[in-house]
Amino acid sequence: MTSALFVALLAFVSSLAFKAADGAVRYNLEVDNDAPITTGALGAVKARLVINNGTGTFTANPNLYQFHWTYSILNLVEKSEDEFHSWISVQSDIPGNYTVTVSVHHTDCWRCPSIAQNATVLQFTESVVGNILIAQADGNATFVNDSTNLATETVTKMSFVLHDPSSYLSTALFSYKWEFGDGNTFLTDVPEAEHIYTTAGSYTLKLRVGARLRGSQNMKIGYFSSYLQLFDPVKSIKVKGPTSTIVEQNLSLSIHVNGSPPLSLCWHMSSECVALSNQCSSLVNISTPHYSLDYQFNATGRKCLSLSVWNRVSMLQAYHAITVTHNSVLPLLFILPCAILLVIVIGFIASTMLRGTRPPKDMVEVADFDFSPMADKPTLLLDSDVNTVNTCCLHCFRQKDGLEEEQPLLWPRTRAVRQYTV
Q: Closest by alpha carbon to 394, among 419, 376, 415, 374?
C-alpha cells in the first residue's frame, strides 16, 4: 500500500516537473493522409511534431516521443517512424470516411497528459481514384492547361492520372471511354487521348475508367469529367486607315482582330516599332473583335503603331507604319502672295534698268526738194557762202509756228553736213 502510494506520488511530481519545463515550449502536431483510397488498397497517415522553444522552430525526432494512434475499425497493416514522421498504413474493404487520431506523449512520462494531439479523416471509396490532365502545344512546347481554357484548331492532349499510392491496381486491366462533348467518343486501353475542337464554345469532357483485378471478377469503375472552354486563338490583326497624315490632324484607324473575345488590346505610338508585354499603359479590354483608334501627332517624321492583342489562349503582335508631314495648305497661302509681290518688284526693277540704258536715236536728215517755179525760188548759195549758213548744233534755236525750242529733243550723233534748198 505504501509502495503504491509512493509510485503515484512520484508520477504526480514528475508530471508537475514536465509541465514546468514545457511552460516555455509550444508543440504543434501536423497530420495528413493520401486519401481518397480505393477499397482494398492501403492508406497512409503521417504525423509530424513541430516544437517552438522561443528561439526557433524545428521538427522533433519521433523516436524521442511516444505517438499513440486511434484508427477505429480500420485494419492496421504497418506502423513506423522515420527521421521526421510517425506514420501508419491502414486498409478497409468497406467504403466510408474514417477518423484517425494521434496524440504525443513524453517517452519518460507515460502517465503525463499528451503534449499535442490532432485528427484526420481518411476516405475509402469503391471507385477508381485519379484525375484528368489536359494539355495543348504552344509552338514546339507542350504545356498543361489547368484553367481548361483551350484553343480551337489545336491538338488537345488528354490523359488520366491514376491515384494508387500503394500500387494496389498495378496489375489491373484498364479500359477508358472518352466523351469529348461535341458528339465524338473514343475507346482505348491506354490512359491517353487526343482531340481537335473546331468550334469555340463550352464543352464537358467525360471519362469512364474501368479496372479489373487479375484473377478476380471484381471491377472497379470511376467516372470523371472536366469543363472545357474553347476559344479561337488570335490569328491576325488588321489595321485599316491612312498610312500618311499631317501634324495636328485627327487620324482615325480601324483595328480588326481575328480571335475570340474577350480580348485585351495594348497599343503604343512612337518613332520605332517596339514589342509590347501584358503590362501596358494603353491597355483596352474589348468584347468585340473591332476597335477604333483616334490619334493626333505633334511632330513630323515616320511613326509606328505597335499593337499587341491577346485572349485567354493566345497572343499576337502587329505593326502599322505612318508618315507625318506638315500642312501644305497654310504655307501655300503665305508663299503665293509673297511670290507675286516679288515678281512685281523684279519686273519694275528690270523695266527701269532697260529704260535707262536705251541708246539715243540718230537725227535723220531729210532732203527738202522744192519743185516750185524758179521765179519763186531763192538764189542758190555758192560754196563760198556755205560757211555763212547756220548749221544745226547743240546751241541752235529752231523756230516753228512762232515758238522757240529751248532744248533739242534728239542729240545728233554726227555733225550735219550741208543743207540744200532746191
A: 415
Cα–Cα distance for residue pair 272/72, rounded to 1 Å: 73
Tell how far CA 212 is from the center of its chain: 51
**Looking at the domain that runs over 237-325, which CATH code has it been given?**
2.60.40.730
- The pairs formed by 324-332 with CB atoms below 8 angstroms and a separation of 24 or more are 324/244, 324/245, 324/246, 324/247, 324/297, 324/299, 324/300, 325/244, 325/245, 325/246, 325/247, 325/300, 326/246, 326/247, 326/300, 327/246, 327/247, 327/248, 327/249, 328/246
Q: Are 32 and 24 in contact (CB under 8 A)?
A: no
User: Same fold for the domain at 23-125 and the one at 130-231?
Assistant: yes
Joined grid coordinates for residue 318: 502587329
8 Å CB contact between 176 and 188: yes
B/e letters for 285-321, b = 16+ CB within 10 Å, e = fewer, are eeeebebebeeebeeeeebebbbbbbbbbbbbbbebe
Q: Note the pLDDT tens digit of each residue in 299-331.
A: 899 999 999 998 888 889 999 999 999 876 555
Query: What confidence tens digit (pLDDT) does each residue in 160-197 have?
Result: 999 999 999 999 999 999 999 999 999 999 999 999 99
* Cβ proximity of 245 and 297 under 8 Å: yes
CA distance 111 to 11: 7
Q: Which residue has the cell 472545357?
A: 228
Q: What residue segments make up the domains of the chain, in order of their start?
A: 23-125, 130-231, 237-325, 360-422
Q: Which cell numbers in the block locate residue 56?
A: 526557433
Q: Max CA-CA distance within the chain?
A: 208
- Regions in the chain scoring below 70 on pLDDT: 1-23, 110, 138-147, 278-279, 328-334, 336, 356-422
If DSSP states are collapsed to H, E and C, what string results for 64-94?
HEEEEEECCCCEEEEEEECCCCEEEEEECCC
**Eight-state DSSP code of residue 345:** H
Q: Any idea which fold 130-231 has?
A: Immunoglobulin-like (2.60.40)
Q: What was the pLDDT predicted at 4?
A: 42
What global pTM score does this model have? 0.63
Q: Is 60 within 8 Å of 51 (Cβ atoms)?
A: yes
CATH number assigned to the domain covering 23-125:
2.60.40.10
Q: With contact defined as beta carbons under 8 Å apart, do 229 and 189 qualify?
A: no
